[in-house]
Structures are given as structure tokens and as C-alpha cells.
Amino acid sequence: MGIDKEELTNVDSFDYYWGNLTDHAPCCSSIKFAVLDTVNNSWISDTQQYKVCDRALAVSDTSAGTVIKDTIIVTHSMGNLMLAGAIALGKCSLDSSTSWVGLAGPMKGSMGSDFVQASCAGETNDLLEKVANVTGKCPPTTALVSLAYQGERFSSVELNAAYTAAQEAYTTNVTALMCSEGYSGLVSEYQAQFWILGAIVPHKSADNDGMVEFESCAAGIPASQFGDTWRSKFYRTKLNHYDSEFLYGDGLFSEAKMPVKWFECLL
Organism's domain of life (predicted)? Predict the structure, then answer.
């Protein structure tokens, strides 16, 4: 989420968002990045979901019809919901030759969305200014509104149902996950803002990355399946939401803060 300009076709690099990910994927014969407008569109948009499918289908010559083959798909944040929603509605599907790596997905929504919507209604506006570089200012974006927490006051019956369907598609199809139980994060220009977000957003749990709770990211996959080391396919970290884009490399000491090493060894 947070990209407001779409590229009409897949691109060869997207360092602004993913950093130098290409050098950390030695098993991939080629890498393509799908750049979609994730500010002015919701994750439940039919158009947006079809675009996700089309971009994934375009990567491999063996993909046919709506079946994505021989591809490793990596999704971050709202991208997880967009793909899961598309699969749930039959817009595309993953062949057994395709793997899906999910990162920091708000599969039950984010209380960060609820916080911003409440703030923009005048309830906590002063606090929003402290973290606006991450959340955006008022009015909340279309994308952020669509991440209202499932079952809470800013969600709807339709959105709740879409979450449930997406969660089923996600847990059935995902190959590996990175979800955070702590927002201490890596050293970066955004670290302090995620400390603030982790403290002031009314999260359901202290186990969150500043924007997304571990439980929302796991989406029903048992916590017992996760390990707190980069050796674990289902990786429980202490990264903030931006750290899981691989932008800031790895921590020096904590094995719960080594996203790049995890990704390299996963492939």
C-alpha cells in the first residue's frame, strides 16, 4: 500500500519499495515487479484484483488461461489481500508449481485504518500528525479505508465477508509467511514512527508491526507453525511494517530481524 502511480506493465526493478531484492533471489531466472495504484483503489476492487492476476500470469510462459504456473509470487501488505481476494472469487488460481510468499498481510484488516478514520473524524487528530508519513493525512485514502478491521465499526457486512473469503484462499494457497509480533524494527528513518504507531493505535494485541497484528497476518494459521528464526518457513519476526519490504537489510544480532537472509534461504 502507498503507491499512487500505476505502471501499465510489469517492470524490472522497483527499488523504492523493495530495495535491491533482485540480488537476493539467486534461484529466480528473472524477476518482475507489478506496480499498481494502492492508494486510490481498494483491495476488494474487481479491476484491481484482475490486474493482480494479469500481472502474475504474464511472468511465466507456461501460465495458461487463469492458472499461474512456475512462478514465485511475493506479496506485501495489502497485496496479500488483493491476490487472496482474486483467488477467492475465481479470477485466477495457483498451480502446484507456483509458490506464494506472503509478507505482513493485514488479512483481518488493520486497526491502523480504524485509527486514521477515527482521527479524521476528529477523535484523535493531533496524534495522527506524528505518524502521517506512514498512514497518510486526512481524508483517509480509499485503500486505507478498505483495510478497516474485520468486525469493527468501520467495516461492513460486505467487507467482513470479503475478508473471510480472502483468508480461506490465503491459508489454503500460501507457501511461506513473514508476520511480526513486535515493532521494535530495524534502524531506519521510519523506525521511531512505527514505535509511535505501535503505542498509540488501539491494536487488538501488543504483537504487531505497528500497523498489522501478528494474528491478522497469520489469518488462522496456528502460531505453533511459526518460528522466530530466519530458518523457519513461517517466520515470526520483530520487524516493523516497512522492514518486511527488505528495504533496510538485516539486523546484526537478532534472528527475529533478518528478513533478507530468510528470503534468500527460503528460495
Answer: Eukaryota
